[in-house]
Amino acid sequence: MTLRTTDRHHLSAALALAADGVPVLPLRPGKLPFGNCSTCAGNACGGRPNMKTPGHCTCPAPCHGWAAATTDPDVINSPEWARAWREAAAVGYHPGGAGLTVVDLDNTQAIAWAHSNLPATRTVPTTRGEHWLYRGAMASANAVRPGVDVKSSMSYARWLGPGTGAMAALPDVVRALIVREPAPVRPAAVTVSVPGGGGTCPHRTRTFLERGIAMAEQRIAEATAAVHATVFGTFLAVLSTHGRCGCLTVAHTERLFAVAQAKGESPRHCADAWANALVRLGL
Question: Is the pTM of this model over 0.70?
Answer without folding.
Answer: no
